[in-house]
Amino acid sequence: MSTLNKGVAKVEVTLKWDPSRGDGPAHDLDIIAAVYPESDPYGDPVYLVHFDSRSPDGTITLNRDSRTGQGFGVDESMTLELNRLSPAYARVVVGIAIQQGGGRVTFGDVAGTGVAVKEGYRELFDDDFTAVRDATAATLVEFTREGASTWTYRRDVRGFDADPESFARLMGALQH
Asked: Are 117 and 140 in contact (CB under 8 A)?
């Protein structure tokens, strides 16, 4: 039986923030996507897509990567072509991590933050990280495969107190 739910097919995640002020180190926020196998959708990710990378099959690409937040509009952008992902993958979690090289920085320390998740011209949701202002990393959205070809999304803004490497291991874990 076929479903009437078209789901989502090709999604763009955009991130913006204002550059740090003063003499402190630049704020560097990064979009991270973790892809999980159908055989263990809450285990370890099969692969991660983050700064300077893309998925092995080209279905998830980081199009823009900023290390400072300088510029107009979007600072980082990632495209996820869920409709092209292999049936071997059942779940994709997308989050944001703040680089901690210059000392502890939380979302509350970074001015002008904003993230949007869109499919074409349709905005699925946006957020400004207010709810996770004390966190150093946060999940945003979870995409889950339903059936052979339908992907659904669920807004999932959760804060973590973790550096980017630790966050990449924790972001897709089953919530308790």
From this structure: yes
| pLDDT per residue rounded down to tens, the chain (176 residues) | 344 457 899 999 999 988 877 777 778 899 999 999 999 999 999 999 988 788 989 999 988 766 555 666 677 899 999 999 999 999 999 999 999 988 899 999 999 999 999 999 999 999 999 999 999 999 999 999 998 889 999 999 999 999 888 898 899 887 74
pTM: 0.91
Sign, CA dihedral 99-67-59-79, equals positive
Which is it for strands 60-64 and 47-49: parallel, antiparallel or unpaired? unpaired
Torsion of CA 175, 5, 95, 49, to 10 degrees: 120
d(CA 153, CA 142): 6
